[in-house]
Amino acid sequence: MLETEEKSVGNVLIFPMLYFIVLIYLSMIEYFVNVIKQEFSLLNSVR
Q1: Percent of the chain's residues with pLDDT above 90
Q2: Which chain regions cross the lipid bilayer (predicted)?
């Protein structure tokens, strides 16, 4: 019984870590998209 309990605890801990990683990944994508938009707006303003 102890082994199954340890496995369930491990699975419970994995999900918050995955959620945290996905949040960081999405925030990084959003940051890069904003940077690219700023670069394009600067290029358009130069023209």
Answers
A1: 53
A2: 12-33
